[in-house]
Design a protein that fits this description.
This protein is an all-alpha fold. It has 13 helices and two strands. The protein has two domains: 161 residues, Hypothetical protein af1432 (Orthogonal Bundle); 88 residues, no CATH class. Strand 1 and strand 2 form a beta hairpin. It is globular.
Length: 256
C-alpha cells in the first residue's frame, strides 16, 4: 500500500478511536488537532515547492518523507488526554510519543522521519538525537532540512490560525501585565520564549511572536510578513498589559 495513504489512514483511524465517548473539552481539542494536522500537511509541501533548489535536490523517496512528516507529526497529540482533560505539554511530550508509536510500524520506522517528528516541538532542533547521529552525512543533511521544513510548517499553520481566529487565542490564564525581564532577554538574543519564564498575558502573546526567531525558509518568512503577524501580535500584547515602551521594544527586536 502507498505510504501516504497509510499515514493518512493512521491519523484518521486514531482520531476516530480517540474521540469516542470523550468530554467536550477533549472533543474540541481533537477536532482542532485533526484540522491542524492537515493544515501542516499543506503548509510543508507549499514551503517545500517554493524552495525550488531544495525541492529539486531531493529524491522521490526523500520527498515522500517530507510529506509523511507533515501528516504524522502530531500523531501523539491524539493521545494527549486523560480522564476527560488535556494533558499539559510539560508532562506529555507528543513528539516523543508519536515516535514511540511509529517506530513500531515497519513502514514508518525510518530514522530521518522519526528525527524530524521528534524534533518538531522543542525550542530548537536537537542534533544529539540518536536517530540523527546514526545517519550518514548525506542523510543528516536530508534529515536536517526535513526537520526545518516541518518546524516552519507547524509554526506557520499555528500563526495562520491565530491570525484568522483571533490573536487573543494566544493568551493563557495569566494576569495582565508588562513584559517580564526574562522574556525581553530571550528576545534580545533572538530566541524563542520558553513557556517556563512566562509571567503575564503580554509575555504569553510574545511567546507566540517569538516563533519568528525559529523560522528557516524565506518563503515562510514572506508569508508571515504578508499576513502582518508581528504587527497584530504587538497590538494584542498592548491590549494585555504591554506598555508603549514594551511595544517599541518588540518592534525593534521582532524582525523577520
Amino acid at each position: 500500500m502507498n505510504n501516504i495513504y497509510e499515514a493518512t489512514k493512521l491519523i484518521g483511524d486514531t482520531y476516530s478511536e480517540q474521540i469516542k465517548n470523550q468530554s467536550p473539552e477533549v472533543i474540541k481539542y481533537l477536532v482542532h488537532k485533526l484540522k491542524h494536522t492537515f493544515g501542516v500537511s499543506y503548509e510543508i509541501m507549499n514551503i517545500f515547492y517554493a524552495e525550488k533548489d531544495l525541492y529539486s535536490s531531493f529524491s522521490d523517496t526523500e520527498k515522500e518523507l517530507v510529506e509523511l512528516s507533515g501528516i504524522l507529526h502530531d500523531l501523539g497529540r491524539f493521545y494527549q488526554h486523560s480522564d476527560g482533560h488535556i494533558l499539559d505539554n510539560h508532562i506529555f511530550n507528543h513528539g516523543k510519543y508519536a515516535v514511540d508509536l511509529l517506530s513500531k510500524i515497519e513502514r514508518f520506522n525510518n530514522p530521518i522521519l522519526l528525527f524530524a517528528i521528534e524534533s518538531h516541538n522543542g525550542l530548537a532542533i536537537n542534533y544529539d538525537n540518536p536517530f540523527y547521529k546514526q545517519l550518514s552525512e548525506q542523510d543528516k543533511y536530508t534529515a536536517m532540512q526535513i526537520a526545518k521544513l516541518l518546524r516552519d510548517a507547524d509554526k506557520l499553520e499555528n500563526i495562520k490560525f491565530f491570525i484568522y481566529n483571533g490573536m487573543p487565542a494566544l493568551v493563557a490564564d495569566n494576569d495582565k501585565g508588562t513584559l517580564s525581564d526574562s522574556v525581553k532577554e530571550a528576545l534580545k538574543n533572538h530566541k524563542q520564549v520558553d513557556y517556563k519564564i512566562i509571567q503575564t498575558k503580554s509575555d504569553r502573546v510574545t511567546n507566540g511572536l517569538s516563533w519568528i526567531n525559529d523560522i528557516y525558509f524565506d518563503s515562510t518568512k514572506k508569508i508571515i510578513k504578508d499576513i502582518g503577524f508581528i504587527e497584530k501580535g504587538i497590538q494584542v500584547a498592548k491590549l494585555y498589559g504591554a506598555t508603549e515602551q514594551d511595544c517599541e521594544f518588540l518592534k525593534e527586536v521582532l524582525v523577520i
